[in-house]
Amino acid sequence: MSDSKLVKLGKSLDELDARISELRRLVEAGQDAYSEELVKLERRADELAAEICSALTPWDKVMLARHERRPQASDYISAMIDDFIELHGDRRFGDDGAVITGLGFLDGRPVAVIGQQKGRTIPERAAHNFGMARPEGYRKTMRLMRFAAQIGQPIVILIDTPGADCLEASESRGISEAIAANQRDMFSVAVPVVCTVIGEGGSGGAIGIGVGDRLLMLEHSYYSVITPEGCAAILWRDAALREEAAQALKLTAQDALALGVIDKIVPEPTGGAHRGPYETAANLKRAGV
Questions:
Q1: Nearest of 261, 271, 149, 272 to residue 216 by alpha carbon
Q2: Any idea what the CATH number is for the domain that residue 124 is in?
Q3: Which of 3, 69, 96, 189 has a CB 3.0–4.6 Å from the CB of 137, allowing a cystine?
C-alpha cells in the first residue's frame, strides 16, 4: 500500500473513530436516537480498518508503529499495573524522562516495570526526549532491575524507541558503555524478565533494555538495527528510499518470528493498537506479560 493511500485511508478511519467516540458518549448519556448511526459507523470503521490491514507493507507497519494515537508505555502501565509507584534517577547523574521505571502489581502479583515513553504533545516529547534514552536512562533501568532481583520480583519491559540518544552530551557520558553494560548485566538478572516491543524497537536504544527470558512484539510494531530512513540515508544517500529499506531490513513482527528473533506476536485490534488500547493491554496480559 502506498504512503498516500495509507495516509488517506488512515485519516478517514481516524475521523470515523472520532465521530464514533462522540456518538458513544451521547448514547451512554441516554440519547438513544444516535444508536442506529453509531452501529452503522462502527461497521464502516471495522470494514475500513480491515481494508487498511489487508495488505500492509513493512513501511506501512512502521507508520502504524509511529501512529500519534498509538498507546505508549504509560498507557499500558495505567491499564495493566495497579498501585504503580514510579522510581526516579540513576544515583549517578540524574533522571531520564525517556524511561519510566517503577513498582506495582500485575493481577495481584508484585512486579517491576520499565517502559520507554515518547510523549504526545510538544512539551511531553521534549520532557521524554522522544523516547530516546540517555546514559542515565539505561543506568536507571539497571538500578531497578538489580533491586527487583534482590526482592524477587519479575520484570516487565515495554520497548518503544526510534533509538538511543546519540548527541554529544550523551556520548560524553558514555551512552555506548551504558547500553553494552545493560546487555551484559541483564543476562545475570536472577528473576524472570519479559520484554515486549509495543511500537518502535530501534537499534541499541531497544536492545539496551531488550535482553530477557521472553521477547514479544505487538502485531504492528517493528524491531530493527536502524530506522528505515537512517538505513536508506547510509546505504543509498537518500532517506526517501525508506520503503525499500523497510522491506530489506525484515523488521516486522512477522519477520522477527520467522527468523526466531522473538517468541510470540501479540495481536492488535483491527486497524492497530490505537483503535483499542484496553483490548491491546488485555492481549498483552494474556500473552504472559
A1: 261
A2: 3.90.226.10
A3: 96
